[in-house]
DNA sequence: ATCCGTGCAAAGAATTTGCATACAT
DNA sequence: ATGTATGCAAATTCTTTGCACGGAT
């Protein structure tokens, strides 16, 4: 069982109040305001601990550093192909995806991860204005 | 435009005939039989080139090294939670996943990636035998 | 002749870990 | 007092890159 630690509590609070899906580095730099001596290693250790305890979510984007999310209820993520921003999607779980995968599969499907790609609302609008200006 | 290179052709052939979703390291070690002097850097460079040209697929698993796949027709992948093996799924594209994501989303959804998790057929059978033995 | 590809080794990015000290129970 | 957490730096893992040389057009 983990012991209490102010650093870990602060990291948890940070993720509960920021919905930016920060990297470990970003968490580190921001938490540093409160704990000037905190180390990146400690941030990584606590992010791993919290993720293992199910108190936060780790999001692997495939390239670049992992992101972390305080929202633990199952939800999907969107990654903007233009600005790289990660957004929470406003849709519930889709068990039918697993159901489809179970067709013709003789193993066991326990779940899936899905990430969506495209243009985020901001970049979409930005592009529209640029085209108008041409 | 890229020039012809025997190394690149060999890598492409390797991926076209092996359905194991190898890592760059595995490709490197196996290609080394034919080109004893080939370097890991060259393997990475060619895997990137082939992926950029759309001749192979890069699969990011979220942890551990990336995998590569000679099958370029769109398909989904399964990752065994027990043995780590990556398998091609026998299901076609699911555009309805993107359709669902477009609800309540004011950006543009161009596509998604989905990976399935669970027990592969082999590990599933193995586990059944172990349980019988108890 | 020119451009591209290669091998090699070094650098880079992201993350983990060993160790001595400090904190929580 | 005992076990866990921290800070720091070094180590690890995966991948990219600079450079001199060799191969392709």
Would you kindly provide a written description of the structure presented here, covering whatever features stand out?
The structure is a homodimer. With about 130 residues, chain A is α+β, with helices and mostly antiparallel strands. Chain A has two domains: about 1-70, Arc Repressor Mutant, subunit A, CATH 1.10.10; about 75-134, Dna Ligase, domain 1 (2-Layer Sandwich). Helices cover about 40% and strands about 20% of the residues of chain A. The first copy, chain A, is built from five helices and five strands, in the order αααββββαβα. Chain A has helices at about 5-15, 25-30, 40-50, 95-100, 120-134; strands at about 55-60, 65-70, 75-80, 85-90, 110-120. In chain A, the strands form two sheets. A three-stranded mixed sheet of chain A has the order 4-3-5. In chain A, strands 1-2 form a two-stranded antiparallel ribbon. In chain A, helix 1 (about 5-15) crosses helix 3. Chain A is flat, with a radius of gyration of 18 Å. The first copy, chain A, starts with 5 loop residues before the first helix and ends with a helix. Strand 5 of chain A pairs antiparallel with strand 5 (about 110-120) of chain B. Chain A binds a DNA duplex (25 and 25 nucleotides) through helix 1 and helix 3.
């Amino acid at each position: 069982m983990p012991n209490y630690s102010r650093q870990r509590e602060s990291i948890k609070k940070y993720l509960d109040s920021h919905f930016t899906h920060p990297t470990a580095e970003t968490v580190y730099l921001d938490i540093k305001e409160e704990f000037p001596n905190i180390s990146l290693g400690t941030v990584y250790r606590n992010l791993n601990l919290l993720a293992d305890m199910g108190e936060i979510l780790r999001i692997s984007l495939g390239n670049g550093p992992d992101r972390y999310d305080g929202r633990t209820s199952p939800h999907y993520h969107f990654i903007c192909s233009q600005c790289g921003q990660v957004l929470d999607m406003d849709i519930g779980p889709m068990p039918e995806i697993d159901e489809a995968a179970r067709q013709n599969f003789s193993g066991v499907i326990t779940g899936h991860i899905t990430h969506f790609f495209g243009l985020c609302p901001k970049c979409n609008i930005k592009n529209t204005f640029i085209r108008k200006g041409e």
